[in-house]
Amino acid sequence: MIVEKQKTKRSVRKEELAYGDVRIQLSAFETGKGVTEYHVLLSLERPSSSFEQQLKKLQNAYNTLVTEDLPAGAVPAFRRYFLSDAANQTERLMQQERENTFCALSIVQQPPLNGTKIALWAYFLSEATVHSHSTVMHEVAHNGYRHLWSGGLSNKAANAEYQTRLLFNDYILQLSGQGVSLVANCIRTWLFVQNVDVNYAGVVKARREVFLTQNLNETTHYIASTGIEGRHADPEVLVQMDAYSVDGICPEQIQYLYAPTHLNPTYEYGVTFERGVTVTYGDRKQIYISGTASIDNRGEIVHPGNILKQTGRMLENIEVLLQEAGAGLKDVMQAIVYLRDTADYLPVKKYLQTHYPDLPHLIVLAPVCRPGWLIETECIAVTGEGNKNFKAF
Fold it and tell me: Which domains does the chain have, with CATH numbers?
C-alpha cells in the first residue's frame, strides 16, 4: 500500500482544573470535526481525610467535569481506579460507582504516592455510540470502528501461571464472539500481578505459551503491554488484566515500535510484548507505549540503584519510541509512573515538575517486574498525522 500522510487541523488542549481538593489533569485531542478524545487524571491533594470523604470528593469532581467541562456527547469508554487498600475499599467504591455511566471498569491496588487513598484515570470519546457486551467488555463505536475496552478480567485458578493462561484463553474466546482476534485486533494489555517478584515468572511462561498457539512470536509480532505489581480486592486473584482491541482496522494501520538504538527486543530476555504500537487512522495516530524502564539495547539495567538517573534514561527511552512514531512527549495525553520505593516519590515528583512540567501523569506505588528497575512509565500519545487511505477515527 502506498502510504500518504494527511495532516489534519490538530488541537491539543492540556489544562489543570481544581474542584476543591481534587486536581484534574485534562488532555483533549480535537481535529475540528469527528471524534474528540479526552484523557482525564483525577487525584486528591490532601491525604488527611477518610476514604469515604476522598471518594465523595473525587466522584463530585468527576460528575462536575462530565456535566460542565466535557461536551454533552462525550461518553466514557474506560475508567481505572488506583486504590491504597483494595480489600477494604473496593466494595465501598462499587456502591458509588453504580451511579456513574457504565463503561469498562478497572480497579487495582496501586496506592497514589502523594499519601492519598484513591486516584482515577478516565477516557472519554465524543460523537460515539456505546454498547456493553458483558460486565467486563464495553464497546465504543464510530465510523465503522468498534473500540472494545475490557477491565478487571480475573479468575481464581491455582496459581499465577494458570490464572494468566485462563485470562488469555477466555479473552480470546470473548474476542472471537465479537468476530475479531487477539492477533489482528488486540492493541494493548495490562497485567497486574500480586507479588510480582514471585509471580511474574508464571505470568511470562503462560503468556508466551498462549501466544505460540495464536501464532504470536518473535517473527510475527507480540502485543504492547504493561506487567506490573497490582492487587485485586480478593487475595486469591493473583493476576488481573485490562485490554483494548479494535474491530475495523487492517494490518497496514498498525506499526510496532522498537527503538533499537536504546532498547533490545523483549524476547531476548524471555518476555513477549512489544515496546510500543501505533494505530493510524484517517485523521490521527494513536501511540501506546508499554511499561518502559531504564534499560539499554542489550537488555541491561542502566544506572542500578540511582532513581533520578533511571528516571532520566527511562524518559529518554520513551522519547525515542515516540520519535519512531513521529511523535514526542508533547503529544502524551496521559502517563502512569510506577515506583518500587515510596521514598523515591518526592525526588521523582520534583524531577518531573522541573524537566517535564507539561507531562500529564500520576505516580503510584507498584514494583516493576525486575527488582533492579526502580521506576517504570507507560503512556498514551496522539498526533494529527493521519493517512487518508484509512477511515477517520
Answer: 5-387 (3.30.1330.40)
